[in-house]
Amino acid sequence: MHAVIQQAMASSAVKGRLPSSLVAGGTMLLLLGGAALLAPLVTSYDPNAQNFDALLQAPSSAHPFGTDNFGRDVLTRVLYGAGIDLRIGVLAVIFPFLFGSLAGAVAGYSGGWVDAVVMRTVDVITAVPFLVLVIAVVAFLGPGEVNIFLAIGGVGWVTYSRLVRSEVLREKQLEYVAAARALGFRRSRIIVGHILLNAIPSAVIFAASDVVLIILTTAALGFLGLGIRPPAPEWGMMIAEGREFLSGGWWVATMPGFACMYTGLAFILLGDGVADLLRVRGQ
Amino acid sequence: MALLTYATKRVGQTLPVALLVTILIFLLIKLLPGDPASAILGDRASDAAVRALHQQWGLDRPLWQQYATYMNNLATGNLGQSLRYRTPVVDLLPRRMGVTLFLVIYSMLLSVVIAVPLAVIAAANRDRWPDQLVRGLITLPLASPPFWIGILLLIVFALRLRWFPAAGYGEGFVGHLRYLFLPALTLSNAFTAVLTRNLRSSLIDVQQTTFVDFARAKGLTYRDVQVRHVLRAALLPIVTLIGVRLSYAIGGSVIIETVFALPGLGSWMVDSIMARDYMVVQTLTLTFAIGAMLINLATDLVYPLLDPRVRMG
């Protein structure tokens, strides 16, 4: 039925309707993003306000996600945490996407030693397991948001280069490139204005799933104590803090994880939707 | 003969990359803010100690000479000293590596054991509810932090039901199997999801080929055809997946070992980061990288042996 679904989606997209997964993922993200932006209105608690009269309280109507070992409201911290994890996930994908795609396009179009240098660099970085290299880079640079961006940016661009390069190698053979060259267009204009535009959809589709990977990586760094500095309510760090109270306060460690899963599912749906949309456009 | 040429070529591709990886990992130490020797020894180190470390690593010499020293140390098995354990890294490495290898291989086997029936059920009930259920379920681990899944399993199966221990490596092979069950299950999730998805579509493709019709026409039962022909052919493309996913599993082990307090390479890396034991972090990063490269090389070399079409071609 997969093909049937795709056909149905194709026809619905042709009629100007959006794929349902795109709508579902987008709505989920708007809800979360809205709740994160309007967190001060959604909840009356302060994410870092300690309340020693309400330590490790189980979920209740006053605290739907319970309270942690400092009496902080877990729901409030999860909402404010969305501001951090979502922001890093979305911002940290920009550099790898732009730099990786451009490097891949230039390598694929130029060939020769430029291609060799770019692709050997890509090979070397992909040879080291992604998470190991990101952890190692952050370990040497030190924790903090800027260093998370540097580590993910420095390691994450390689996938985009691989993707875009293989697309460019295919596009390069097509007639419109020969036409552009015959018209005497500059190389930069042909690469950016023509080839890259046609080669980019696969990178866009990958970027949606890459956001999930980056959010999970950010949470992992926070969990290991290498991410954002406390007391900021970053999800991974909250899960790590809750590890000490797994028997007496399971909600402290589990609730932020549900938020993370929700966000991940939203981006996976969004990515599926974008893929359907671009595939239709491309045909 | 063609196989030998292929193997030589593939090994020949790996060696230069491995050499470049050592440069990348050597350069990690340059990411330390400020003077590396002071960063490693801490704020209270005496000037003499900092100078001694400069001397020992040749930090005052040009970069390429420092790299040459690094490579010379690697070649002679001098992988550095753990400041925390006061022991040469090379002495601690084998036992720790054993734990991580056990965990990673165990998780791969669990993935296969879980994914094969799931994919067979999904493919056999294509587009009906079992298929949709399986496809929905396998999306969850891809969206969730693995360490969080580990904590959920820990709460339910170790703390509440007390079926499995919450931490540690256990004694003997059976003990390892029991102690590492929850960590391996945690680590296996992502691969199970990817494997199920790929195997499902691979099964559906194979079911539509003519040799399956032929097997049915010969009078073989549905079950025989599924197991002996369809599953065998469908598993083949999955072998290449294993190489890629093992690399992810190695990365994931760093965090899962921390969750379950396992004495492997990953938890050692995290401990060393906390202790500012940078030499160890560097050596472990290299160990993980070499491990991942060897696994990728091995799967690429094994694949043509399994697939007769590649072997003859």
Account of the 3D structure:
The complex is a heterodimer of chains A (283) and B (313). Chain A is elongated. Chain A has 283 residues and is mostly helical. The N terminus of chain A is likely disordered. Helix content of chain A is 75%, strand content 0%. Chain A is built from twelve helices and no strands. By secondary structure, chain B is mostly helical. Chain B is built from 16 helices and two strands. Chain B has a two-stranded antiparallel sheet. In chain B, strand 1 and strand 2 form a beta hairpin. The longest helix of chain B is centred in the middle third of the chain and has 36 residues. The chains are: A mainly alpha (283), B mainly alpha (313). The interface between A and B is large, with 49 and 51 residues.
Secondary structure elements and their pairing?
The complex is a heterodimer of chains A (283) and B (313).
Chain A lengths: L1 H13 L5 H18 L1 H4 L31 H19 L1 H17 L1 H16 L2 H12 L3 H27 L3 H8 L4 H37 L11 H8 L7 H33 L1
Helix pairs in contact in A: 1-12, 2-4, 2-12, 4-10, 4-12, 5-6, 5-8, 5-10, 6-8, 7-8, 8-10, 10-11, 10-12, 11-12
Chain B lengths: L1 H26 L8 H6 L5 H11 L5 H13 L5 E2 L4 E2 H36 L4 H9 L1 H5 L2 H15 L11 H8 L1 H27 L2 H8 L4 H14 L2 H22 L5 H10 L3 H29 L1 H5 L1
Antiparallel strand pairs in B: 1-2
Gist of the model:
Chain A is mostly helical. Classes of the chains: A mainly alpha (283), B mainly alpha (313).
- What order do the SSEs of chain A take from the amino end to the carboxyl end, as H and E? HHHHHHHHHHHH
Shape of chain B: globular
Taken in chain order, the helices and strands of chain B follow as HHHHEEHHHHHHHHHHHH
Could you report the average pLDDT of chain A, rounded to the nearest whole number? 86
Distance between the termini of chain A: 20 Å
Helix percent of chain A reads over 70%
Radius of gyration of chain A: 22 Å
Number of strands of chain A: 0
Number of strands of chain B: 2
β-strand percent of chain A reads under 5%
> Looking at the chains present, what oligomeric state does this protein adopt?
heterodimer
Helical residue percent band of chain B = over 70%
Average pLDDT number of chain B: 85
Strand order of the largest sheet of chain B: 1-2
Judging from the principal axes of the Cα atoms, what is the shape of chain A? elongated
Identify low-pLDDT runs of chain B.
none
First-residue to last-residue Cα separation of chain B:
11 Å
Main interface pair? A-B, 49 and 51 residues
Strand content of chain B: under 5%
User: How many H/I helices of chain B?
Assistant: 16
